[in-house]
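Before our next group meeting I need something from you. Please put the record directly below this note.
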Amino acid sequence: MNNHIKVILFFYVTILFGCTSKNKTIPKKEDVLLATVYNRSLYLSEIKEMIPSNASKEDSTLFLNAYVERWVRENLLMHEAELNIPQDSNIDQLVRDYRASLIQHNYEQVLISLELDSTISATELMAFYEKNKNQYKLDGAIVRCRFIKLPLTAPAQSELNQLWKSDKAEDFVKLIDYCNRNATAYLLEDSVWYQLDDIISEIPKSLLSNVSMSSRKDFKLEDENYKYFYKRFDYIPKGEIAPLAFIEKKASSTILQKRKLKLLEKKKEEIYERELKKNNVKIYKK
């Protein structure tokens, strides 16, 4: 092994097990040096919390071996990289910029969690939709419907047929329960808009060759494995403006994002004005 690299592996498992209990640290004088690479050192105290408390001595030893080997290789690569950094790469500045970015981002998240009003009224949501709805044209057709994909081996199919035809609220509850127990896939909330392509993907193309999903409102299909039940209540084709109910989450997210940006800009200006008054900011114009 290269003379510049001293790899010293001390697997004092007895020491490890005596020192890795919760909230217990290894005194510095008793710490165990595990490896060194040039001027970098790895001590047991740095990794002892990573070892599961219920690990056996053998598992702990295997873990330490693997960790140390990985640490050595990574630090050798780091040393090699430091020797070969181009002089014009300005790594220190990049690190400072990245650190500043992380600190700023963390502070912004704290501000947002403390001060952002995340409540969106129905009136505000509708006003946003009316103003921006042309941006929400459908990439594919959507439907309000009920759909069930049922294995041919499912029990009590006559019961399902009755529940499928019924308009009674208590039968709808039974239908949901039946599908929970037996269906491979199902969509039963007829007030929700679904992507038509998602439903089509559940049905073999061979069965749909003579069925137009854009015009058929009700059908039952069957192949060698499944039965397919479909009942459509509403349909909006591709290229039309999406209803608010379909894009509500996306619209709400956009509203909140705009609020975040507005809040952060306001805070920046408040901090600027405050520090300017305290003479903590000096701008030297040429």
Notes: Strands lie at 33-37, 40-43, 142-151, 185-187, 193-195, 218-222, 226-236. The domain at 138-236 is CATH 3.10.50 (Chitinase A; domain 3). The longest strand covers residues 226-236.
